[in-house]
From TrEMBL:
InterPro entries: Costars, Costars_dom, Costars_sf
Organism placement in taxonomy: Eukaryota, Viridiplantae, Streptophyta, Embryophyta, Tracheophyta
Name of the protein described by the UniProt record: Costars domain-containing protein
Pfam family of the protein (one): Costars
Transmembrane segments: none
Domain Costars: 1-79
């Protein structure tokens, strides 16, 4: 699996494990990702895949290097897709207009 494929798989796993936010993004903690059996089987180097996704501006989190235990509560935020942003904007506009 190449880096692009791993980043796509990571996005899927964050959506599976995380909670969707009002803006269409997904939020999950590093500890949840790291300790998930499915993620452990998919990603040989989860931290490396996270760094690659952050470099590609697919997601964001505080810090550079995440370590198990120390950074379990660090929030990883999968940025919303343009379609999700548009849907959130429409929903917000509809709520404001009513």
């Amino acid at each position: 699996m190449n880096v692009e494929e791993e980043v796509e798989r990571l996005k899927e796993e964050i959506k599976r494990l995380g909670k969707v936010q009002d803006d269409g993004s997904y939020k999950v903690t590093f500890g949840i990702l790291f300790n998930d059996d499915r993620c452990a089987n998919i990603f040989e180097a989860l931290v490396g895949t996270l760094r690659a996704a952050k470099k590609r501006k697919v997601l964001t989190y505080d810090g550079e290097l995440l370590l198990q235990g120390v950074h379990d509560n660090v929030e990883i935020i999968l940025k919303p897709t343009p379609a999700a942003v548009a849907a959130a904007t429409v929903a917000t506009d509809a709520a404001v207009g009513s």
